[in-house]
Fold:
Amino acid sequence: MNKFLLVLGFLLVLAACGQRIFPSDDGELQKVTTKAGDDFLEFRLTRTKVNPDPNREYFWFKSGQLQSTRGSFSGYLLDGEFTRMNQEGQLSARGEFKDGLKTGTWYSYQQGELVTIETYRKGQLSGKSQDFLGGEVVEERIYKSGVLNGFRKELRGDSVRQIKYRGGVPTDTTYLKSGVLSLDFLH
Structure:
């Protein structure tokens, strides 16, 4: 029975990897399910014509492979909800694309535990990003147009290190440990 399920699973993966992409009735392309390494991916594609920005990373699909390149693409752009599942069926990433660019809130997981939350706008980090360890926030960052702009907080046990950034450049640092405040000013 286990061999049968293993063979059936392999055939399904093989069929998904070799599937052809056909437009749906509304002009958008069908949902694609494919395998990348040990992970299973599910996403939608679009035929939208895009003039690529050389500073942005585009995600696209061609010849059964998910690709990403900065400033260009060749194939169908990802558009809509994206999910990545590991071989155990656990969610490892979830987010959304618009015309091949990451947009909105993206979640990353390891062994079913949340490890990062990132916010994107037109393919660039924009807004709050957080890292987690054991369900607790260990770092927070604020981005604008893909660069740190605002506070970056590192939380370690009873210590907090807060670095202020302007346009990707650190301007000052604050340390707080067990109620003791210390300031460093960077020039």
